[in-house]
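As a point of orientation, let us examine one representative protein, giving the amino acid sequence and backbone structure tokens.
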Amino acid sequence: MSVERSVDPNLTINEVVRRYPAALGVFNARGLDTCCGGGLPVAEAAARHGLDLSELLAALGRVAAESER
């Protein structure tokens, strides 16, 4: 059973990575980086890159849940 935790889409990419370091892999796999785009909110970065926000948040939620075990 997959457990997810809610990740606020208004947090910046850098803030999500700071809270959940494993989230870096989720962002990198989707072409999002912490250098130039790190200051963007997750929702805005997803929109700019044509990504499905709900899928991205689900992936981040799984990583966040794993980090809290």
Residues 13-67 form one domain. The mean pLDDT is 92. The helical segments are 13-19, 23-29, 42-48, 53-67.
